[in-house]
Amino acid sequence: KNQIPVGPGRGSGAGSLVAYSLGITDLDPLEHDLLFERFLNPERVSMPDFDIDFCMERRDQVIEYVAETYGARQVSQI
Question: Looking at the DSSP assignment, which residues form a beta bridge with residue 51?
């Protein structure tokens, strides 16, 4: 929409068929035999997260867009 370069997804979240179906990532986990089990499984100690890389030069625009769209109190940077 804003023509900001976005990475395909990184780490275990890239194996999520739901993320692919929702357009969060363009990486088809079935085509590339990626395992969703790495993202969400009973042995995982920490909560699952999803890493997405944005163009560094326009990162502030992405942060501003997310805060305006979902409300500053609904988003955080970690």
Answer: 10
